[in-house]
Amino acid sequence: MLGAFAQAFRTPDLRRKLLFTLFIMAAFRLGSFIPTPGVDSQAVQRCMAQESQASLLDLVNLFSGGALLQLSIFALGIMPYITASIIIQLLRVVIPRFDDLHKEGQTGQAKLTQYTRYLTIFLGVLQATTTISLARSGQLFQSCSEPVIRDQTVLTFIMMIIVMMAGTGVIMWLGELITERGIGNGMSLLIFTSIAARLPEQLLSIGQAGKWGSVAAIVALLLLVAIAVVYVEQAQRRIPVQYAKRMIGRRQYGGTTTYIPLKINMSGVIPVIFASSILALPPMIAQFGKPQDAWVQWISGHFTQGSTFYLTIYALMTLFFAFFYTAITFNPDEVADNMKKYGGFIPGYRAGRPTAEYLHYVINRITSAGALYLVIIALLPSLAIIPLKLSSSQMPFGGTTLLIIIGVGLQTVKEINTQLQQHHYEGFLK
User: Fold this and answer.
1) How far apart are CA 34 and CA 71, in angstroms?
2) How far apart are the first and last CA of the chain?
3) C or N terminus of the chain, fewer CB within 10 Å?
4) How many DSSP H helices and E strands does the chain contain?
């Protein structure tokens, strides 16, 4: 990986793209520290030092690189865009128009991207309103009674919503700039930047508490998991496909052999994000109740990270969403119809319904292995805190963090290698 980056910096065109990408990532991190107008940044820092409870906001704070709880101009981070993208993909099952646009190719994808942008801005307004309302009422930092917003007027409230919403639009624009003029997928790299920026600080805080042995164990665990994740993410089941020969006029078409690459983990990190988000909702709802209420005490006792009930539900929901999301993104019936249309078939299976049934059988077996892999990665950080004698808030990474960091890093290195090969071919032709 380091060799690929070193060789890329020696290539002028790739060096410009890498430097541009690094500049955008630095600008994104800079915006995470600029406070929103009307926010008392010093009071926010004091309240963050006192806060120890986990909630749904922790997941959003993770993807914003800590900017959410700092109430910066980039407080919402990339989370509205992620949510909008997932919603648009799920609506393909419900709204036939969206599925037709997906099949139209580049034109339809551009239209879906436009819908995603509109939905991102709407979700940004909704999330900004919720975050600022929680900050004004004192629910954002429950362990701190100090007000973080001094001016409680409606004008200040509206101005803060507009600034945070604009910050979401700027983040979306920065991600698209990286995709067009830089290296890799812009949105994924911004998520990677947000998560990776917090790891050194969290490891240092554990070391300063006198647990340097735990820090060494965490780094070793991270490296071992990285090797395992790369191995699984690279694995494929290749289904051979042959195309029959066809004579059109005097020309012969077809007669080629190819394959359908099926990844073990076709759903990516989506199941873990869904499961984490849903399980974080009950503790957040319980914050609005009274501590002496029975339902609040039940939620506090069962929905703590590390409890047997929480880990069991987390595993079951991850399994469910792995199968659910794979069923949305890969349709064996559609693949079988396309193969039949162009004269393709899987050796040993007739085109049409038998091919679709075979693909159903294969994808179910592969998804079972992929879902089990996701469960292990998701539960590993929660189980590792027991021998390391750490609390859930001290663990510097979770299952979602691991999958995103390693997956985005792997994809970026692949793109760098691809562009390096293109430059070598160009030099050979010249």
Assistant:
1) 9
2) 28
3) C
4) 17, 5
Residue 71 near residue 63, CB atoms below 8 Å: no
Map tokens 């690459």 to a residue.
Answer: 261
Whole-angstrom Cα distance, residue 236 to residue 260? 9
The mean of the pLDDT values for the chain is: 80
For residue 291, give the DSSP letter.
Answer: T
CA–CA dist 381, 359 (Å, integer): 34
Among the listed residues 135, 132, 150, the one whose alpha carbon sits nearest the alpha carbon of residue 38? 150
Q: Hey, how many other C-beta atoms are within 10 angstroms of the C-beta on 309?
A: 11
Q: In 3D, which of 208, 201, 219, 196 has the Cα closest to residue 388?
A: 219
- Compute φ and ψ for 252, nearest 5 degrees: -105, 130
- pLDDT tens column, 137-171: 777 776 677 778 877 788 888 898 899 889 888 98
Please list, in sequence order, all residues whose beta carbon lies within 8 angstroms of the beta carbon of residue 17, skipping any fewer than 6 positions away: 181, 182, 183, 419
Measure the CA–CA gap between 178 and 80, rounded to whole angstroms: 18
Q: How far lies 337's CA from each of 46, 87, 108, in Å?
A: 61, 27, 21
Interacting residues of 8 by C-beta distance below 8 A, sequence separation 6+: 14, 15, 18, 183, 416, 419, 420
